[in-house]
Amino acid sequence: MEEYLNTPIKEIITKFPKVGEILEEYNIGCVPCKVGSCLLKDIMEIHNLPENEERELLRRIAQVIYPGKKIEIPRIERKNRRKAGDLTYSPPMKKLVDEHVLIKKLVAAIPKIIKNLDPESEKGREVIRKSVDFIRFYADKYHHAKEEEILFKYFDENLDILKVIHEDHESARAHVRAILEGLDKKDKGKIAEHLMAYHELLTEHIKKEDEILYPWMDRNLSTAQVGELFSKFNEADGATDKEVIGNCKKFVEELEKKYKIKKEAVK
Ligand SMILES: [Fe+2]
Ligand SMILES: [Fe+2]
Question: 108 and 60, same structural domain?
């Protein structure tokens, strides 16, 4: 089993597709992941399941790799192991999770925006333009920049987990560019297609960060680094135009009211 703990997950899944299905059951999305060079033991470390769940998962994987054999499951020592249902954040990470809430509200309104899409009228174009302004300023310049220019600098940028997150940010930017091109040409189909793709991408991306990336980063930062990070985030917030942030919040609140977005949609 030790040998497989040190094998890249894509190699294991290619040889034993059933392993991918088992990981999916634990909400570990290695099958659709485009990178896939994480070792099995890294995946256990990053996802940090409660110990009994992790042992059960490894036992099931061992059964697929060595059918019918009795395999010793190695105990993976780890400080700060997560307990079932427990998801807490350090103050800087909590700040990012809180920013996600506003982004999730915009993302939740997108299907309704698409339903009412009207690039022919000035009013219709305004909703699209304002949504793009929100994404560009709040989600990208304000939030993603805090991640890319401050938080991620504390980690090795060649780590698979960071490559995946970077790719998501780049894909999100490409969708925004495509939405604007569609708006220019009053191409309703193109706007709808890329708004929907942004909706799907960001829904998964935020879940990935809240549930996997930030808790993993928290476990790997020292107390001094957490403090430094918090003050750097505060500095970045201080340098941001408060009026624009206020307008972003106001716009999302208007959307919520207009489209009657339910609270459950942003959970
Ligand atoms: Fe992100
Ligand atoms: Fe984020």
Answer: no
